[in-house]
Write the structure tokens for this entry.
Amino acid sequence: MLESKDKNRKQMQGDMKKIKALVIGVILTIFTFLPYIAQADKYPFDFFKEKVTLSIDKGELNVEGIYYIRNKFSEEEELVILYPFPIDRYHSYPHQISINYIDGKNRESVQFIQEEEGVLWPLKIAAGATKCILIEYNQAFKDKEATYITTTTQGWGKALEEAKFIVSVPADFREVKLSYQPDKTEAKNNRVFYYINKVDFLPVEDLVVKWK
């Protein structure tokens, strides 16, 4: 199994090099700023919606994000996507990561390559179509603070049409503070849920949760 995975990794790395060279020559990230994307109308892909659930426990952050990207052009387009994680002295590299394309009830597992700052994989979208991407990861942290990256959405050169966040923490967390004001708070099953709903959303700060 390990040998087979190594071969797949080498093959995918080769495919990605071809994609980067022949299609765009650079890596586009879902969340990392690239100045050339400022002219969003001239770019084929449009990242327009996300729904993210953050479940926080002591020392562990579980993220489930659903991201919607559409191809605005009349031809099939392909490029490489980089999905970064908040990694610093307080946040470890995620120890469980999965990526799936979702089409109704169907799921297609996506192979990816782990890099220092995140994971990357080739993305192909048919003309005029929308791709729904489910990304899940578990990440350990050391302090009473957890971060989810939002600011690099600016790299797409336009605001998200819609963004929804659900943050869940244990009921015994004290003085919980979020960098974004929640629209609704709900207590159930020994946890507290914070709901954040945004439209025309171009974030200037990451989603940070702190407590005592």
Observations:
- The first strand starts at residue 28 and ends at 29.
- The CA atoms of residues 178 and 209 lie 5 Å apart.
